[in-house]
Amino acid sequence: MIIQRINRTDSEKVDLTVHNVEGATLSLGMGCYFVGFTAGTQSSNDGASVMRLSIGTTGDAQMQSFAGIALEDIPADGYGAIRAWGYVNSVLLSQETDKTIGVFAGLPSSMLRPGGVAGTFTSVYGDVNLSTLSMAAAQARMSKYINIMATTNISGSLPYGKSFVRAV
Question: Where are the domains of the chain?
Fold first, then answer.
């Protein structure tokens, strides 16, 4: 664990070294979760093993063991750094049709949840895919983990957004 204390130019941040136990690369900006909290992953529970967040309600459930955002490409069965607390320049946002997310519509629009591509994020606010969760429950679950810090249009590509992560 690397903890940078606040100084004149950067805010505090906490970075962790993790082991990617998924069979695919965990790309820069992807969200990941600690294994061991979901069915079928208990045998890998060592406090360092992570996998990228799934899509939909599976990804929503994995947010309870959210570890952070990849600060680099971490190869399958490799080790790398993630940000567990602090400002992140590159959070990978899900490709969607004409959706703008950001801080312009108040706090709910800045909350991010797992997106339509594994490891990516999208906005909680106004998301009709939360059919199994009430909006209040979704906001309570997601608001403590990751918030977008700049308005971003996520139409037609997989752009990066600036966000603040609170996984610790």
Answer: 2-85, 89-166
Chain segment 103-122, per-residue pLDDT in tens: 655 555 567 878 888 998 88
Q: Which amino acid is at 121?
A: F
What span, in angstroms and rounded, lies between the C-alpha atoms of 148 and 87? 10
CA-based Rg of the chain, rounded to a whole angstrom? Answer: 15
Structural contact between residues 74 and 23, judged by C-beta atoms closer than 8 angstroms: no
Report pTM.
0.81
Task: State which amino acid sits at residue 50.
Answer: V
Gap between the Cα atoms of 71 and 31, Å rounded:
10
Closest CA to 138 of 114, 166, 160, 103: 114
Closest CA to 68 of 17, 43, 31: 31
CA torsion 140-61-153-71 (nearest 10°) is: 100
Within 4-129, where are the H helices?
A: 56-62, 107-110
168: tokens are: 């610790």
Q: What is the pLDDT of residues 43-92, one digit of tens each?
A: 556 778 999 999 877 888 888 889 999 999 999 999 999 999 999 999 98
Short-list 93, 103, 109, CA closest to 151: 103
